[in-house]
Design brief:
A hairpin with a 2-residue loop joins strand 3 (44-46) and strand 4 (49-51). The N and C termini lie far apart (99 Å). The longest helix has 17 residues, at 2-18. This protein has 5 helices and 30 strands. By secondary structure, the chain is α/β, with parallel strands linked by helices.
Length: 425
Amino acid sequence: MKRKLLAGFMAVCLILTLLPATALAADDGTAPDAGAGTTATYVAEVDGKQYETLQAAISEAASGSTITVLKDVEGTELSALKQLRFVRPNVTLTLDLNKHVVEANAGEAIAINAANVTLTIKNGTIKNYLANVTYSDGIYAYDKSNDLNLTLENMTLDSRTQTLAVQGLTSNSNVTIKNSTLNSDEELGIYYPPKSGLLTIEDSVITAGTGVVVKGSSLRVLGEKTQIIADGEKVDPDGYYTGATDGSSTLKLTGDAIYVESGYNDRDIRVAIEGGTLTSANNKAIQMYIKTGETTSVARDISITGGTFSSEPDADYLAAGYTIQYNDDGTYTVVKKQENAAEVVPAAPDVQEPTDLTGDDATAATEVVTALKTATDVVTGTGLNAAATSVANENTITSEAGKQALENESVTVSESDTVTIVIPP
């Protein structure tokens, strides 16, 4: 029996020695290097072939391929430059992080600089926190990136400076961010100035000093889960960023959740807010800056049909048929205007103390006026306007029904009379 067991053990050992080296690859992507006797670490795979750097996989992948990350990757496992570059034109590629973390250490984690690139990045986390330099971005599309279709899906993108940007000289540069989270520690979430294209933010969260800056093309924000959160200091814009790289012009980071800036008058700007929550801790939820007196033949449009805002959006931003609802928590929600919504008119002038009263009447009037002037919880300004709008939008009384109700109380009105709903402070 002992001899038979020994013989069996030796047979197993013999079989193992005949197995190819790759058959012993570990789950973390490591495998013995057959020839050198050392251990190679594989970080990515494309169509069954494995690579020791992620850049090697990207550079060799045929158009239409999926590059699958096999393990957490950092530093020179990305490339010798500690970043990833997509510089081949006319390719369609998918980078599947496969729930892993890719940590760069460069001016940008991913650089794109080629025309007609369709790139989907999904299912993982990309970080870039290079210290003591001007830029440590997430993704940057350079000037050759015309006809770009970039999609981030189920991604987390963390960077020290801007998380994603497209060069302003590009055309037809399209970016879709879906079910993803973007975080910038020091600057802005997204900078989007191309001549043409569409930036879509859907069910995603962007947190930065300034959330999104748009200087060209179109932006669409939608999805109940979308949040654009700005926590930077308030800065009032006083001029345009020219795009100069010699330091003569600087992009103003305003602290807005969405900041739209004119100045590139060879391209339209169209912003559509359909849902989500826009929050600024110190400035506006959404702001468009156009110099006083500027005229241009290109579009400068913001159209809001939904969403909740930390500050009241300008009435000019509302799409036709929509109005602002004031919320108890101090936020503002854009809703569809009811069919019979009343018109909101300017508030009456501040109350004045009567001068023709005497005795107890004069004393009582003085007390009322003093109480109103010194009250700390009176809703004023845009808050009062939003509250009035909310009440007006809840109006369900038709003109005919209102006229009949007044006549029932012996109040006679004609077709030309205006009935005003007064909302006391």
